[in-house]
Every structure is written in structure tokens, then in C-alpha cells.
Structures
1.
Amino acid sequence: MLAGAHHDPHGLLGAHPVADGSGACAGVLFRALRPYARAVTVVVDGAGTALDDDGDGLFSGVLPLARVPEYTLLVRYGDTAENPDELEIQDPYRFLPALGDLDLHLIGEGRHEELWQALGARVMTHQGVTGTRFTVWAPNARGVRVTGDFTYWDGTSLPMRSLGSTGVWELFVPGIGDGALYKFDIARADGTHTVRADPMARRTEVPPATASVVTESRYEWGDARWLAHRGDRPVHEAPFSVYEVHLGSWRPGLTYRQLAAQLPAYVKDLGFTHVELMPVAEHPFGGSWGYQVTGFYAPTSRMGTPDDFRFLVDALHRAGIGVIVDWVPAHFPKDEWALARFDGRPLYEPEDPRRAEHPDWGTLEFDYGRTEVRNFLVANAVYWCEEFHVDGLRVDAVASMLYLDYSREEGQWSPNERGGRENLDAVAFLQEMNATVYRRCPGVVTIAEESTAWNGVTRATHHVGPDGFGGLGFGLKWNMGWMHDSLEYMAKEPVHRKYHHGEMTFSMVYAYSENYVLPISHDEVVHGKRALVSKMPGDWWQQRADERAYLGFMWAHPGKQLLFMGQEFAQGAEWSEGHGPDWWLLDPSYAAESDHRGVRDLVRDLNRAYGATPALWERDTVPEGFAWVDGDAGEDNVFAFLRFDATGSPLLAVSHFSPVVREGYRLGVPEEFGAWTEILNTDATRYGGSGVTNPDPVKPDPVSAHGRPVSLQLTLPPLATLWLRPA
């Protein structure tokens, strides 16, 4: 017991009937483990009986009682009558297990979809007494104890009991409530100890402190209408324009509640339909941007409590903004107080070090083949959707999960049972996660950051593809190929772009293989890659014009849009988590303020026109929603195509990536429309452009072009994108 290696402390401590020679009850034996106490008294019906001091903090005594009574313990720490320093407490060892058999069965099966209700620290009333139930999965431990600020970080007095073969340890501690700090003191198989944060903690201390915090939500949501209607239209047939945010640096120093007063209004004004939050799960190192998670069930405490985070989500919903959070089930850091070798042996990570070590990030990968680990992650996905009402999960680094040889050389990995390089356990996990989230959380979308050509990322899990695998079941996938190719094209001087024309058109070869998001994310504006506007060639005017034209092309291209904060106003510097976006660029006292405000005005107008034009989103995932007008005008650096809504109503998008004006540029269009009107022009003066526009409705000429019997003659501004629709 003193070594913290007892699996059944309740069998020794607490109150137990003592039988005489005939088997009848001869009294009740009381035992209490209270290190540092001077005396312990049992109080029954107001009368106290002192227990004997057996040494090493153990107190015991037999009372002549016919049955185990209701009782409390009066523990004295003071030396004298003048300084008694007494504390009357409920005895944790008089309570039955506070975790039910069904919970234990589901945990053992790896199918507890509300795992956070069973494991971790939960405030509750048990056998008429209020306290906190502590539970933790540690199957390799010889013993587990609760330690915290309520024990002055000495866990000797609070050993937990093992609940059979499940590997779960449990203890109900009366009197402990919201705000208490705690960890688990685990005795490893070799007898050494490790003190760990709770893997299921729903709140943590502010880093760099690492304790878990008992928490109880009292938040009352106000977004019932939002939740009821968010799934009215399938996401792949709906407008979906995302503003990616790093909460800690969007406005540095703001709390969740302060962000709630600013972020929803800003995003709504710009017309984005969703925000995507870079990981908000607790992480010890701010420079990881949240991608090295230690508290998978805890929103980071840097900006407030879990209820404060709920307040922010609620505020975004009430503003009509959906909330996507980045979710990181691909790996976890090696911090000695967190998940790595949690109970003395590999537990959350595979035992095979070749599969455990993530070669790129100095972290550990999850053991997706272990039912309890898979359950931990699947339930975590559900947790964020149900407890925090988030509308989507963007799953980070999916490719690193899918391939056993990801970033590994020959000899550093072993094939799967089929002899292939696919991680079959990870495939099964992702399928289970997606199926569970979509079943339990109507209206939620899952999004894969998957950088390879894996077949069927957004295919239903029950539809088997040519590779023999069912689909992974995601709703959307980041189109990393489009991002890389299009940015490579834009980085070229206009005179050289004709030699790279195919980099802008190649995406349409595979555009309908998955349901895509076009991402200009944080990853593209850090680590020397430069901000979006700084990737563009030429002088400052040309750089801004290129960014505006590129955004117009991006918003018209099949797929949903994602833009990282700061790029909406052409920030020239790379993003830094230390200071966030350069908001000073929008200060009216800054000489070039209008240049940056013009780009932001364009983003606002792009989003508004996009939302009002079903042709740009209603048929995103079917070939019938797109047709090239001219995809081969490499000599002119022109891309012209049509988008169609479900009724066949078109939008004509024309992007011109040369710094010259082209008069009378002829493009074939559908003949059934008598005139076309320019609804957006990225060269408009209000955006900082040169003001070359097509101000009047343009009527088609009976001149065939691009395989169509009628055509328009347009003036193409320099480095600009035009949108036109039938007048």
C-alpha cells in the first residue's frame, strides 16, 4: 500500500465487518491511511472513537457494531489541543465503484462512444455524497494513486482500485470539486513511479504548468436553431468559404470571451461561412501551433476555461458562422508527464519502435490497432462535436497515418499482413471515426489534409474501390496538388507563365475524384515560403494585382475555399505566432493602408458574390458544373471557364495573368443568353486596380469561337480576374 502498488485498497481500507468464530458479526473494523496525521477518529451518529495508530500513517480499530454504519473521519494534524488542525472528511474507501459494468464492457470492447463520461475526473453525487470520481486506463500499472493540490501533491493516502481486467483504475474522492488540480501517480511494473497528467482531462493548468484540472460545465447554449439547420444542405452542395485562424495570435492577448466580441463580427463582415481554428486542444509548446497535443480532451487554458471556449463557439454560431477545429490524431509528443509510455510500457504508441517513432516531428504515433487507443481517438472526435458544438473536424497529417513507409527509408518499416505499405489499422480507425461522427453528429463535416493520391478519401466507407479498400469516409479533402501547382505558376514572371500553363489546368484532370477544399493555409506562409502577396513577382502594384487575380481564380475554381488570416489584406510578412497578423497595415495613418484595405474589400466582395451565385458551389463535385471555354491560351496567360448551377444557369470566369490590357478578347459562350454583365473585376479601382472594366452589358456576336456559335468580345485588364453572368 505504501509503495503505491496495491490493486485493491478498498479491500484493506474503509470499514469491514469482522466475524466471530460462528460467522456472526463481531464488530466493524475501520482502517484509514492518513500520512502525517496525529490522530484519526471515526464519527458515527455524532459520537467519535479514536483509532489506533499502527504507524506509517495507518490507523485502525474495531467498533462493536452489528453492521457497517454511515460515518465520517475526523483527522487531526495539529500537535496540541490549542492547535488541533482538524478536518472532518468522508472516507473515500467506504464507497462502491462509481463506474458501471456497461461502461467497463464498452471500454473493453473499444466502443465507448462517450468515453469522456466514463474516464477522467467527473464531479458527481455518489451514494448521496458530492465529490469527484477519478478513473484512468493504465493496464500495465502495479498500482495507481490520485495526487493533487488537495493532498499537497502526496498521493500516498489516495490509492485507486483496479476494476478487473479492463485496465481501468477508479476512486471516488468526496469533497473534491471544480477547479481542483490533480495527476495520477503510477507504479510501473519495475516498481518505479511516474506522475502523469490525465489523458482524459477536460481542463488543464495554463502551460508551462502541467496539472489536470477537475472541471464541471455550467454553460447554457444559445445555438439550438443553428444546430437544427446546419445540415439542411449537404456541405459539398453548399457555399463553404473558410477563414483559418490561430486563436492565440489573431489578436494576441485576447481571451476566448474577448475573441467572441471581435472574431464573429469580423468574419461575418468579410462573408466567410466558416472559421477553421488551428488546434485548440492543450499543447505544452506554443511554437507547435497546437499540433503537438498533450490534452486531447481539453481546450487550451491559455485563453480561458472550457466554458469560455463554448462561449466563443456559441457567439460564432449566433453570427451565422460555422466552426471547424483542427484535430491531430496522427501523433503526440514525448513529454514524460503525458502519454508517452504512460504506465511504464508503450500504451498509446505501438510496441514496435519502427512504428512508434514519427520520423518527421520527433513524436510518437498512435497504436491504431489497439481497441482502447482507437476508442480514445474516436470518442475524442465525437467529444469536440458534441461537447463544444463544432461543425467540422479538419484532420491533420492523414498521409502520415495511412502509409507505413511515410518518411521512412528501406529497412525502417515493415509491410502489412498483405505485404503492402498501407497502415491497415489506421485505415480502419479513420473509417470508424468518420462513420461514428456522421452517425452521431448531423451536419458535421470531416476534412482530410491528405497530400497523396490515396483512392477514396471522400468515398463512403462501405463503397470498395479498385484498390480493395472501402472509402475513408471524409466529407472533404484539402487539394494540396492544386495549391502547390497554382502557387508555383503564380511565382513565375508573367513572361514565363506560358511555359507553365498546365500547372493551372491540371487540377481539372482530377477535380471530381474527391470532394475538394482549395487551401491557402498557414503552412504556405511560414518557414521561408513567404506570405501570399510576397510570392508574386514584380513590383508592389503587380504583386497585389496578382494576388487579387489569383483569389478571383481560386473562388471560381471548383472546390471550397480556405484562406489563412492576414492574407485577406495582403500582409507582406510571413505569419508569426508571436505577434499574429500585421493589423497596423490597415491603420488609416499608414500611407499604404488603402492598398491593403483594397485587397480585403475584394475578399469581402468575392465571398458575397460567391454566396449569392449557386453556380460557384452547387455542383462543385460533378463534371456537369464546369466547362472550359479556353484552357489552352498559354500564349496569353488566360484561363476562361464556365460554372453552372443545378438549373444550368452559368457564370463565366476569366483570369488573365499578364500585365497588359487585351482589347476585344473573344470567348465563346452559350448562345441562349442575350447579354452578359460583369459582376466582379479584381482590377477595379476600389480594390487598388487600374480600373480597366467592362462597365456595360456585353452582347454576344454571331461569331463562333471555342466550339460555340456565339462569342463575347471582352476587355481583359492586366493581372485580373473577371466574373460575368447573364444579364
2.
Amino acid sequence: MTVYEDDTQAIEALKKVYGSSWDAINPESVARMRAQNRFKTGLDIAQYTADIMRKDMAEYDADSSVYTQSLGVWHGFIGQQKLISIKKHLKTTNKRYLYLSGWMIAALRSEFGPLPDQSMHEKTSVPALIAELYTFLRQADARELDLIFTELDSARSAGDTAKVAALQAQVDNYETHVVPIIADIDAGFGNPEATYLLAKKMIEAGACAIQIENQVSDEKQCGHQDGKVTVPHEDFIAKLNAVRYAFLEVGIDNGVIVSRTDSLGAGLTQKIAVTYQAGDLGDQYNSFLDCEEITEAELGNGDLVIKREGKLLRPKRLASNLFQFRAGTGEARCVLDSITSLQNGADLLWIETEKPHIGQIAAMMNQVREVIPNAKLVYNNSPSFNWTLNFRQQAYDTLVEEGKDVSAYDRAKLMSVVYDDTQLAQDADEKIRTFQRDSSKEAGIFHHLITLPTYHTAALSTDDLAKGYFADQGMLAYVKGVQRREIREGIATVKHQNMSGSDLGDNHKEYFAGEAALKAGGANNTMNQFEEPTLVSH
């Protein structure tokens, strides 16, 4: 017996209990609606997706070639279309997630308008976007199953038993569009209590994985901006605990915490850490401070000093009242941050880097793995990197190391189109193509994401359309560049009425009102000009 059959029989039994007043209720229609609404609450989604992530993490531990991926999305429709595309082209959503980017919420979803990535947007917009994404993913399930049910009814009417069996198997083995979301909570939007309250809302909306960074909440900066300020480990651990308590309170015991360190690019700290004895966590944090040794006689008015190894040290304090780290300590601080986070409740790491360089990432992760062998990284394949220039320069440097002739290249100008057809450019592109595979093998990267790709693709595709439509191409810009491609490539949005739920609503109307239902999908619906979108096979 399948869930579909169980639901049909259960409603049959209920009809007998309630008698003739339920005569209009079709048990199979109820079973269909239940299949189309598998997840009743956000917590159902959070538990389902947490189980997926934990399984994927275990599989990666056994085989680093089975890493996971995601793209950042800023609207439910964009997330939905991404998953529909994955199912259409790759036939499964396995190992594919969604990423919810705080940068894109700030830039695209704030009531203040576009904002920099500095935690100035409304924190309620974070769980709101999680809920929106899952609403659209659940609607994708309902729509696709509705298409299958429509085909099933046609096959039954035609007496095609083989097709009926095949379609019923698709229903019974249906793979949902609902996948894990790794959701950005920035630096926690306040003190640990504020972090806990927001984390709980995010989990209740469906988030199974929450990413939190070790910056100061009220000084938070984008990971690729200057002026980043970190907090002592004890402060950050309190927020890790707050997120874990939120997961445990709502019953998602295996929720995933991604601990992000921005220490590589952060040269400042807001506080000097509390320390009780030499070598403790606070003392290790303070050991990275940029200090000058002084005598007691040299103490000035309002000076703050720390005592280490019998010496009086005066940390360099800026006019902003922030303290400065010694230059060149970023990688060591990242390693300490990562080990400390994993030892205090985090499940995955995120080390924000300034460039995509496997050697740099692996050097830090190897040190972490000396202490915690199964340490795993979530890595930002960031659009803030100039991937073309970075990898061409890496290819150039490899040639230099090998003693090859590089006189045909200007390392500083390798972005130029004049190099596009060179062997160096081809070698660089191949390294970009295999970057995720290679870094997952060599640097412990479990999950690869691009934080804000759909921000860029939305701008690029709009530019493509606008430059032709408002110039001499007129409607041909849309027809040739959009609609014709939609039709020929089987993009379901060509039938936008169907995508928005029109056919699904018609079927529901028929459930509710029978032959009296007033439907939108009749002969005069202009969507009939288009072929049926290709169904995903399962």
C-alpha cells in the first residue's frame, strides 16, 4: 500500500462514518490534495531537510566527491524555477540546496530600499523569505503533481493500463522540490536573546541550517568589505548556543549550525577578551592583538594595558575605540575560530576568503582537521571574486614556477579579451570548471554555494531584453530572446497561467462544484497556443 492508496481508503472509511452529507467528497481527490500538500508546517520542512543534510554530511565524510551545492536566491519564484530546472535537466534534487543570502535580502527585500550588507534591514524579512521560498517550492510540487494527475485521468479514460501504471508509479515515488535552505542570520541581529528569537522564527519557517558569523552585530560588514570587526570567542559561543537552544526548543534536534569566521579579512576587534590564565581561550584571542610593550611609568591617561608573560602590553586602540590585530594573523585566527566553534556546538564551518585559492583554503582546513578530523566547510564561491583574473593569474604563476616562457602575457592585464583564446586562458577555465570538485577533495569543502548569482542573472537578462526591446528590435527582442527559447527549451513558464496555478485551481473547482465549476482553462484560454511543458520523469 502506498501513502496515496492509504489516504484514499482512509477517506472512504470517513465517508461511511459521516454518511450522505459527505456524498460529494471524492476520496481520491482528497488523496491528491494531500499528496500535493505533503508538508503541513515549516517545522515539518525543517525536520525533513535536516535529515537530508545530516545524511549528506555523512556521505561526504565517506566520499568527498559527493559534495553539495546551492545558488543564492532572493525571491520564492527564483528558488522555485531553480528547483524546477534542476529536476528537468538533472532528474533529481539530490545534493542540491538553496542558499538564503543576507546580502540579497538587504539589497532587494528591505522596506528601506536597497541597503548595504550591514544588518540594517528588517530581521523579520529573513524568516519571511524562508517561508516564501517554501511556499513556492510546495506550489511547484502541487503544480507538477496536478499535471501528472491530469495525465492519469486521460490514460484511464483511454483505457491505457500501462500508462496508468507508469503514472501511478510517478505519484507513488514523487520527489519533492523541497530541499534544504542554508539561511544567513548575519551576526545574530543583536544580543544572544535576539539571536535565539530570530533563529526560532527562521526554523519555524522551515530553515534546517543557520549560518552565523563572528562579527559584531552593530558593526557588521559584508564579508568582502573593509572595516570588519570580530568578537571574542566566548561572545560568539553564546550565540552558537542560542541557535542550538532554538533548534532544540522546537524539536529539530539535528538542526545544522554553520559557523562563519570573517577573521581573515577582519583587522579589528571591539573587545579585549576576558582571560583567567595563560593559554586559555581569551588569552589566545588577545595574543593576536597589535601591542607595544611599555613600563608602568609610560602609562598615559586612560591607557588600557594587558599583562602577558610578565610584560605590560598596550593594545593599539583606534579613535573608534576598536582594537587592532597584528597584520598577517588572519589565517591563524581563522583556524582558532574554526576549531573553537566545532568544539562548542557548530556542525559546519565557513571561512570567508578574499580569493578562490585551493591552496589557501586547504592550508587552513588541514590545521583544523589535525584537531577535528571530520571538519567540513561551507564555501562561498563569491561573485565578489574576479574568477577570470584570479585563475588566469594562478595559471600564469604555475607557468613561472615551471620555468615556462610567459613573455606573451602581462600578469596585471590577464582579464583582457586578447587572452581569451590562449592556452593560459583555457587552462584557467578548466581550473574554474573543476574548482568545486578539486577543493572538495583537497580542502574539505562539503557545500559549495554562490551567494548572489541570481542578483546578477536578473540584471543581465533584463539588460539583454531592454537593450533590444527599447531599440530597433521591438517585440522581436522578447520573442527571439525569451519566448521562442522558452518554447523550444521546454521552460514551463511559457504557460505562465499554468505556472501561477490556474489549471490547479480549475481542478480544485471541479472537486468542489463538479460540472458547475467555472473554469479558466477552456478553449479560449490563449495558453492553448503553446505545447504542454515537458513533464519531469521520476
3.
Amino acid sequence: MAGMPDELAGSKRRGGQLTTDPELPPTAVDEAVREAEEKKWTPAKIAIWAAIALLGGVAWFMLAIVRGETVNAIWFVFASVCTYLIGYRFYSKVIERLLLKPNDRRATPAEYKADGKDYVRTDRNVLFGHHFAAIAGAGPLVGPVIAAQMGYLPGTIWIIIGVVLAGAVQDYLVMFFSMRRGGRSLGQMAREELGVIGGTAALIATLLIMVIIVAILALVVVNALGESPWGVFSVGMTIPIALFMGIYLRFLRPGKVLEVSLIGFVLLMAAIIGGGAVAGTEWGAAFFHLDKVTIAWGLIVYGFIAAILPVWLLLAPRDYLSTFMKIGVIVMLALAIVVVRPEITVPAFSEFASRDNGPVFSGALFPFLFVTIACGALSGFHALISSGTTPKLIEKERQTRFIGYGGMLMESFVAIMALVAAISIDRGIYFAMNAPLALTGGTVESAATWVNSLGLAGVNITPDVLAQTASNVGEESIISRSGGAPTLAVGLAHIMQQFIGGTAMMAFWYHFAIMFEALFILTAVDAGTRVARFMLQDSIGNFVPKFKEHSWRPGAWLCTAVMVGAWGAVLLMGVTDPLGGINTLFPLFGIANQLLAAIALAVCMAIAAKRGAFKYLWIVALPLAFAAVVTITASFHKIFSPVPAVGYFANNAAFSKALADGKTEFGTAKTVLAMEAVVRNTMIQGWLSIIFVVLSIIVIATAIVATIKAFRHNAAGIANVDHEDEARPSRVFAPAGLIPSPAERELLAEWDKLPAELRFERAGHQ
């Protein structure tokens, strides 16, 4: 290839340098050629980016400045998409060029550690699908719906701006640094970079939070699929379809990603459409009508099997398959919004934006909005995936930008669409659906009376409207269907019926959305379980080195069993006891998740400092500072607030006093048993909050110390300890992004001409 010096190609190692293998074409595009392509600005290219910037600016102006009685939903689509495009094209490039400096001549762990099980080189598009499916769990669907209580603007700004400057930055950095360290987990990287104290705190925090997060995700799936034959059939069918796709790519037609994608898409659509038909039959309704306990046990067994099977067989193809569904539905919803152009009557800042006693969730806009939207803008769970399965599957270093930064932008778009769906329905319906039963009373009459008593501008809901809405979506009642998922389903059905089918199709779109959400979240459960296994193996490996060998099957099975047993136990307790188990830990999800993000950013800051990137350390330090302030402040509110609706210990004291006074019901608890459960749960929640925030502060403090130490070493000319794996030369080539550049296409043509006997034997998908 023109411009590619021969000495930079191939993969033999001489004198510590990556040198030439004369039998292979170059393994990376020449830097000069690549930079020339990126810096080439034609008039058409300039016009396109100017139009994107202009459209984005107009959209933000309409949302943030021109705030009349209504705002058209299309501006949410344009503001988000234009911002994402600009952030990906320019800001992520700044991070790549100035902070990370990837080298595609260097082999990734998927190449030099290939074992056919956990380390498998995977086509970038398949891997994008796997990573996106793994990170996009309940958070981007549920959090924005709940946060809509505050109005549309706070959540919109946090989701869109937050992802560009914080969430996507975290995912990208963690993935790259983990890849450079052989795919090590976040906790293990913290132990190496921050020392025993900070590292141990990070290991404990990540393991505890991971158990809570996976159990919560599993509980959402159980609630979505419980007694839903359609959902059980359709979601269950994705497993054999994924197994077929894995075998197809591995043995039958290696490298035919587009081919298997089309087959998988057709089979997925058949499973979804067929699910409705099967559920309508007598035998289907009987066979697939499963109670929540049965589904919970099924998830536990599935989680164990998915975590120990080779990643190419089930996990990667299933997540890739799910991505068709996820992205397809979201793009379809965005298209429907552009066509239907629904008017949003929700104010930019609602009546509850300046209060801390909202009916959907308690707490002031700052800091609780930023932990309520626990995914879509910034999520610590993503750091675990980005240092778990994904870095073990990456073909080339430059692909981390497309998969890490780009994957998070896509999740943010999901969150924006969820927010639009929630605010597109009548505000009275929104509050009737999301307020607790103790406030709404459970009937359409009492719910309508309560909603109208809130004094919301322009809201005057009637019992008939609430009853008709439930009838339209095929439900007996929509009152107090909290948790976000039902509201999202009603919003999606409300928009989609205007696009396709009319009111008669609302029930279909509603149940389609419920099933879609279950599929969305289940993919995070299986990936999360596998990541949890890696984390425990790395932790035990500090004392028993054999466990660090992820291909060692006894260690993999044992650690998988321990982690599945941990989240499975609290899941089952929560399913069988609505006042216990994971239901006790559910309120901790948002803050714990964001504390984990602060831990991840702190570790990244220390690593970046040791790499000598002090001039550009602000890229990590700014989102870290914001995440730390938000999460620590929120934690302090939950621990020390004297308001029972906000503070755990204040709530505990109020209920304890009520019990001591001989009351048989108090607040939302209608029985003594429920009151005792509140006392128990708030005490657990309070002490876990203290443990999490203390561990996080220790990690952040040790990261700051490590950063200062690295700066002093650099000033004194002392080399900082490098924990990256030894650089090994690569013997393969693959494009960096979704669409190969002209130089990449030219190089791909050279590789396609290579004789079969000289081709590097691929361990995964091509």
C-alpha cells in the first residue's frame, strides 16, 4: 500500500520493536496516510458538518430558549443526533489522538491470548452489538421516565451533554486501558494502579455493587416476563437463534457477518410476531405462562450457563441479535416522532423541579436527577462491561473508539427516546401511573382525584380517561404501575399508533414494548454475570494466581457459581417477598451505580497520569469531579437528611417511633409487618450507603495521590510503573469503524489476496 513503509508491517519482534513479517501485508494503515484522510476537508464535507451544527443549534434553541406552552418532539431527535455526531467526530478524536494514542500494529489480548472461550477476536460490528446490548439494560429505559417528574429540560441536558463529556469518555477510557492490560477487570486495575488500600476498596465496592446491579436487572426481567406467554416465548427463542448464529459464523460460514445478520433478523422477527400468535393459543398460553419464581430460577440457570460457555457460542451472537431489536425499535420510534411530530405539553421545569418531595421520587433536582438517570449519561455498570467481556474480544486498538464511545452514544439516544415517550403522554396519566399506590388509592376515581389535587398547570384528568387508556393498551388498570417500564410502553404505544395502525394497534404496541424492554434488559444480565465471574477470578487471583487464568475451567465454574449464587439469592428473596431481598437494595441502584462511575474515572485519571498525559488530564478530571460531587452529595443526603422521604435513617426513626407508639399502619405501610420491613430495610440501605461512599472516597483519594505522585516522578525524570502487558506484534488487520476508510479498503484488498495457507487462523468471527 502506498505510503506504508515495509518495516512497519507484519509481526516479528526484534530488539524490543514491532518489526516486519515479509509474508504478511501491513497490519495497520500508515499514520501519515490516515491523518491525511482525516484532515482532508472538501467543500461538501464542510457543508455537511455546517448543516449538522446549524440544525443542532436550532434544536437546542427551541428546547432551551423558545419555551412556549408546548414544544415539538422532533427537536429532541435533532438536538441529540446532531450533538452525538459532533461529539463522536471531534471530541472522541481529541481523546484518541491526545490521550490514548492507539497502535494497530500492536496485538490485542483477543489475538495474543486467544483461547476460543473468553478471548476471541470478534468482528467490530458484532462486538459493537454485543457491547451495546450488554451496557443498555434497565437504566436508559427507566431512569429518564422517572426523572420526567422534574420537566423535560434537566434530563435532556444531562443525557445528551453528559454522555459526550462523561459517560462515553468513561466507557472509552476503561475499555482501552483494560485492553492494554490483557482485559483485566476494573477492580484489578485499581489494585495495580492505586496500591493495596485504594485497590482493595475498589475490589470490594465493585463486587458488592455488581451483585446488586445484576440482581436488580434480573428482577426487572422477572417482573416483565412474569405471567406473559408472549414475552417468555419470544425472549426464550433468542437463545437457540443465537446458538445457531454462533455455530454458523464459527464453522458453517466463517466471516459472513452480513449473511448471518440477515438470517438472524428474519428469525428474530418471526419469534416476536410468532410470540403473539403462540400466546393466543390455548396450549401456548398454558405452556409459556410462567410464574415469577419459575422465571427467576430460569434466569439463574441461564446466567450460569451463559457465563461459562465460549463467548462466541451464545453471549456475543445473542447480544448482537438483540441489538437489531433494540436499535431497530429506537430508530423506528425516532422516525415516528419525526413523522407524527407530537406536541409536548410537559414544562421545561416542572412544579417539582424546585422541591424535594415529588410523588414519583423524593429529593431535589441537584443531586438526585443525576443519580435517577443512572444510565444514558453516565453509568458505572458500563465500566465493568468495558473491563470485562468487551476488551477480551477487540480485534484492533482503534476499534475501541467506535465500540466504547460510539456504543455509549447509542445508549444515550435510547434514553432520550425513553424520555420523549414518557413526556408525550398526558401529564395526569403520567403521575397516575408512577405515583405509589398509597397516594393514588388504586382506583381510577381516587387516582384522578389525587392527580387533580396536585394543582398541575393544564392537568384535569378524569376517571374515564384513565380507564380508556388501560383498555386501549389491553390492561385492566394502569394505576400505580411504577418503575418506568409501563409508562415507557404506554408512551411508545401512544406515538406508534399515530404512525402505524391507529388506536386499534395500541394494545399490540404496548405489549410489544414490554417484551422489547425484557429483551433489552436480559442481555445485561448474562453479560453482567460473565463480568462478575472475571472480577471474582481477578480478586482471588491476587492470593491464588491460578485463578487469574480465565481459561482455567474449575476456577471459571467456581467463581461463576459464587456470583450467580449471590445475585440469585437476593433475587429469589425479592421475588418471594415483596418487602425483602433485592427489593431492599433496589433504592441503592442509582447512587451505587454512579459511585462506581466515579471509581472508574478515578482509576482512569491515575492511569492517564502515569502515561504522562498531564496536559490533557482535564478530559478525565472534569467528569470525575462532577460525578464525585453529585454522588457523594446524594449519599450524604440519603444518610444524614432529617426528612424521612429522603434520608434512610430519618425514615427508620419515623417508622420505629410509629411502631413504639403502637400504630398498626404508617405512611405507605398498611400493616405492622410492612412497617417492620421498612425499619429493617432502611437500616440496611443506610449502612450500605455509608460503606459505598466511604469506599468510593478512599478510591478517589488514593487516585489523586497516585496522580500527584506520577506528576512528581515525571518532573524528576523518574519513570512511572507501567502495568500494561508487553507489546506484541499483530498478525491481523481490521478496519477501525463502522465503514472502512479508503485506505482501509485498499489494505483489506491486500489481505484478501493473501494465500489461504498464510492467513492467520482466526479464533473468532471475521
